[in-house]
Automatic annotation (TrEMBL):
NCBIfam families: NDP-sugDHase (TIGR03026). Pathway: Nucleotide-sugar biosynthesis; UDP-alpha-D-glucuronate biosynthesis; UDP-alpha-D-glucuronate from UDP-alpha-D-glucose: step 1/1. It catalyses: UDP-alpha-D-glucose + 2 NAD(+) + H2O = UDP-alpha-D-glucuronate + 2 NADH + 3 H(+). Belongs to the UDP-glucose/GDP-mannose dehydrogenase family. This is UDP-glucose 6-dehydrogenase. PANTHER family: UDP-GLUCOSE 6-DEHYDROGENASE TUAD. It is an enzyme of class 1 (oxidoreductase). Its EC number is 1.1.1.22. It comes from the Bacteria. Keywords: NAD, Oxidoreductase. InterPro entries: 6-PGluconate_DH-like_C_sf, NAD(P)-bd_dom_sf, UDP-Glc/GDP-Man, UDP-Glc/GDP-Man_DH_C, UDP-Glc/GDP-Man_DH_C_sf, UDP-Glc/GDP-Man_DH_dimer, UDP-Glc/GDP-Man_DH_N, UDPglc_DH_bac.
Length: 439
């Protein structure tokens, strides 16, 4: 099939590359000239494992093309997939300005009938709204059919998740259009659920808000475990064995971040408010998450007192491992809290440092390795659970520090690794501290 994707961000690029990989002819359009220039040369603008390899492979096979021209990019499209951003707006709801513009771009340049698929995460009713924008502007005699096809990939494993998705949701009021989009995905052999447009839009928000709530729930359990002297990892394991609960998303930490959960929970709350439903549970999910992002700083103050003039090493900046995305990363809040207190923060991230510099700026310092960050530090915060930190030589890291104190926001270490250290104070989340004194 001939497919055009609007937006080459995490979702649009992953989708375009994977659709080319399964044999379709894909053109990706983006308004960002630098991104497109790089992509034409096979350089990915984002860090995503396995992406660049498939990108160059499919460009080479002439199944994948990139352009900034909507006219050029839409020329042959049977299916047009909109994957532009829907960030949080000033009122907490989704900012639809990019998707409105994408609709205007399509209407202006489309010269034949096509199916328009909205893959961006959009509030219930948006497909109808975008259809109206399109129909008001499309050239005479040109018709489009709308399909809602929300995306569920996770950054850091976008390629894998797109190719091996748990399910594909296709919402449409046109049976024929839904069938055609289903056929587009057929080579993936993924279960497809056909629904109405509004149910499909709702499935995305209901899923993300549920996952965010599951995180806030286990974080509250973790805080309670600390208070009562239980171990949250054992508790989570015991809970997860119950098939009704499941093992996924029961890792306590310092709160969710990223480009989706924070904004999607707020957008669903906004929808609930508009329709007069008091979804108070979501308000608590947000409050718990904000509180959790303060946790490492709170623990450090409890242990070290005033943090003014102290040096803290911060390991990890991206909102989760295997991505360079800094959107709503807990590290941003932590960096600001510490810098406001006059703490000297030196951070290291394997991939996200350049993006972090743009978001956090020079209120903290940046190191080229975990060891450099730890040099002379009064304490160390683990903020993102990169494998590099899990596998690090802890003894060497601790030797670099002024005091061997770790506040681990991601529970990276098992007891065996901790026991191998000569001297250590280790404060995890939801578990008793581990103190090893020099013999
Ligand atoms: N990032 C994720 O993990 C994820 C997962 C599932 C769903 N989503 C949803 O998918 C959507 C896209 O997210 P993302 O993270 O890929 O966004 P992103 O910000 O990384 O990328 C959006 C891209 O769209 C481009 N763009 C904007 N207007 C355009 C236009 N008129 N024509 C062509 N290109 C245009 C931008 O230049 C940018 O490159 C959002 O609605 C998001 O909520 C994201």
């Amino acid at each position: 099939m001939k497919i055009t994707v609007l937006g080459t961000g995490y979702v649009g690029l992953s989708t375009g590359v994977c659709l080319a990989e399964i044999g379709h002819h894909v053109v990706c359009i983006d308004i960002d000239q630098r991104k497109i220039k790089n992509l034409q040369e096979g350089i990915s603008p984002i860090y995503e494992p396995g992406l660049e390899e498939l990108l160059t492979k499919n460009i080479g096979a002439e199944r994948l093309d990139f352009t900034t021209s909507h006219l050029e990019g839409l020329k042959a499209a049977e299916i047009i997939i909109i994957a532009v951003g829907t960030p949080q707006g000033d009122d907490g709801g989704a900012d639809l300005s990019y998707i409105e513009q994408a609709a205007r771009d399509i209407a202006e340049h489309l010269n034949h009938n096509a199916i328009v698929v909205i893959k961006s995460t959009v509030p219930v009713g948006t497909n109808d709204y975008i259809k109206k924008i399109l129909e008001e502007r499309l050239k005479k005699d040109i018709t489009i059919k709308m399909v809602s096809n929300p995306e569920f990939l996770r950054q850091g494993s976008a390629m894998h998740d797109t190719i091996h998705a748990d399910r594909i949701i296709i919402g449409s009021d046109h049976e024929e259009a839904a069938k055609k989009v289903g056929e587009m995905y057929l080579p993936l052999h993924v279960p497809i659920l056909f629904t109405t447009i509004r149910s499909a839009e709702m499935i995305k928000y209901a899923s993300n808000a549920f996952l965010a709530t599951k995180i806030s729930y286990i974080n509250e359990i973790a805080n309670l475990c600390e208070a009562v002297g239980a171990d949250v990892q054992d508790v989570a394991k015991g809970m997860g064995k119950d098939k009704r609960i499941g093992e996924a998303f029961l890792n306590p930490g310092i709160g969710y971040g990223g480009s989706c959960f924070p904004k999607d929970v707020k957008a669903l709350l906004k929808t609930a408010n508009i329709y007069g439903t008091n979804f108070s549970m979501l308000k608590e999910t947000i409050i718990i998450n904000e509180k959790q992002q303060h946790l490492l700083v709170k623990k450090a103050i409890n242990r070290l007192g005033d943090l003014k003039g102290k040096k803290i090493a911060m390991l990890g900046l991206s909102f989760k491992p295997e991505t360079d995305d800094m959107r709503e990363a807990p590290s941003i809040k932590i960096a600001h809290l510490l810098s406001q207190m006059g703490t000297d923060v030196v951070a290291y991230d394997p991939i996200a440092t350049n993006n972090a510099k743009k978001v956090i700026g020079n209120i903290i310092r940046y190191a080229n390795s975990a060891f450099e960050a730890a040099d002379g530090a009064d304490a160390l915060f683990i903020v993102t659970e990169w494998d590099e930190f899990k596998q690090i030589d802890l003894t060497r890291l601790l030797q670099k520090m002024k005091e061997p104190i770790i506040f681990d926001g991601r529970n990276c270490y098992g007891i065996e690794k901790l026991k191998s250290c000569e001297t250590l104070e280790y404060y995890p989340i939801g578990k008793p501290a581990v103190i090893i004194e020099k013999q």
